[in-house]
């Protein structure tokens, strides 16, 4: 069906909401996107766009076969022990090298395309369930993130469970690497992932530690660079980077929430992105899944005769996929933090099985939302 003359409202201007707004505008709807923040701004740091996310971007017409300007191509992952010794090299997936991209750059790419497609952007505008603004739309897509208000209205309120893990996120000056491996350094009770961004002018760090005393959630919480340096001092050598250059860090308490059991209300409203399937960051799939959602929603609208039918097809196609990926990400959490002697065993397995590990993830990366059955 064409959505001509239908009024579509998208709640949330993150990667998921912006991609959905673009897909709906392409389907012919008059789209208004509401974002509660004042501006999109340069917020966030690195995202990994794997082959499945790349296929979604291509399907939305945002890139060809190559990466967008500034994105860095991965050469796989080097896995290092606390001594700095490389224990394994995991090659890039067979379905294609991952792109490392700044979240703000990916968001700009989507925002420009959505604006060109006619999406009306409203900043500083929070839309809550039951509001008059929400009531006026023929179709409503709630992409309001992992702390979604809309999930309570469409699915059910869920209680978050703190994992006892805290992620620190920071940017360091880079060395201009245009292609580079990511480094995953594992130590007892902590691990660090690092990779280049923006043509290598920046280096992204995500450092996860086990910590019972901190539960704060949200991407804008600032941490103390001195505390970060102290806690991760041993990783400076492992990563080969000068943590002294670090000026700003953000903290994020990792919480578990189940994938929504119900993604749409049977009438006109649907959840999308983290609002439907919050995930832990251990597989770097949050943004990729949100991009996949947007492409499948666009295809479901194209194929169905009515909006309720399209939303039912969207949910049926997306829920099993999101559940499988979220489960895999959750399974990775414990592997990275083993203490000796278990960690020696895990490292030995990685040393001989790095390639196998990559192949095991192939099902995640080989998914193409422009061709997946719906
Ligand atoms: C500020 C920020 C920084 C991030 N930085 C990183 C990063 O460095 N690395 C990484 O891997 N991931 C990061 N993420 C998460 C990552 O972008 C998402 O997990 C993924 O892209 C899925 O996006 P989403 O659109 O579903 O949700 P989100 O990216 O969480 O976007 C949800 C959006 O909805 C808005 N919103 C919420 N409620 C309302 C409402 N009632 N009305 C209107 N708007 C509302 C929020 O302000 C937000 O912009 C960040 C997210 C945010 C919001």
From TrEMBL:
Required cofactor(s): FAD
FAD-binding domain span: 7-328
Any one GO MF annotation of this record: FAD binding
Database matches in InterPro entries: FAD-bd, FAD-dep_Monooxygenase_BioMet, FAD/NAD-bd_sf
Keywords on record: FAD, Flavoprotein, Monooxygenase, Oxidoreductase
Transmembrane residue ranges: none
Range of residues in the leader sequence: none
A Pfam short name: FAD_binding_3
Record-given protein name: Salicylate hydroxylase
């Amino acid at each position: 069906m064409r959505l001509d003359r239908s009024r579509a409202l998208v709640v949330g201007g993150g990667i998921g909401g912006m991609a959905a707004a673009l897909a709906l505008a392409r389907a012919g709807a008059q789209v208004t996107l509401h974002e509660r923040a004042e501006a999109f701004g340069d917020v966030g740091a690195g995202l990994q766009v794997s082959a499945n996310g790349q296929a979604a971007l291509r399907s939305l017409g945002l890139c060809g076969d190559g990466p967008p300007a500034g994105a860095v191509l991965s050469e796989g992952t080097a896995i290092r022990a606390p001594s700095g010794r490389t224990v394994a090299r995991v090659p890039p997936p067979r379905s294609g090298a991952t792109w490392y991209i700044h979240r703000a750059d990916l968001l700009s790419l989507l925002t420009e395309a959505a604006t060109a497609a006619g999406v009306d952007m409203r900043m500083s505008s929070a839309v809550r369930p039951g509001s008059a603004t929400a009531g006026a739309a023929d179709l409503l897509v709630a992409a309001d993130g992992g702390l979604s208000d809309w999930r309570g209205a469409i699915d059910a309120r869920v209680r978050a469970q703190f994992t006892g893990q805290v992620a620190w996120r920071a940017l360091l000056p880079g060395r201009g690497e245009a292609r580079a491996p990511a480094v995953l350094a594992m130590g007892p009770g902590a691990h660090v992932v690092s990779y280049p961004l923006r043509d290598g002018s920046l280096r992204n760090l995500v450092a996860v530690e086990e910590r019972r005393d901190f539960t704060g959630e949200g991407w804008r919480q600032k941490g103390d660079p001195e505390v970060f340096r102290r806690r991760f001092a041993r990783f400076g050598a492992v990563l080969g980077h000068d943590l002294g250059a670090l000026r700003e860090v953000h903290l994020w308490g990792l919480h578990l929430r189940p994938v929504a059991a119900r993604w749409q209300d049977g009438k006109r409203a649907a959840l999308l992105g983290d609002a439907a399937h919050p995930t832990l960051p251990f597989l770097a799939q949050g943004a990729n899944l949100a991009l996949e959602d947007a492409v499948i929603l666009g295809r479901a609208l194209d194929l169905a005769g009515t909006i309720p039918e399209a939303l039912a097809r969207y949910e049926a196609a997306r829920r099993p996929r999101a559940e499988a990926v979220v489960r895999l990400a959750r399974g990775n959490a414990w592997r990275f933090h083993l203490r000796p002697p278990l960690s020696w065993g895990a490292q030995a397995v990685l040393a001989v099985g790095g390639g196998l590990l990559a192949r095991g993830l192939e099902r995640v990366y080989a998914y193409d939302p422009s061709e997946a059955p719906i």
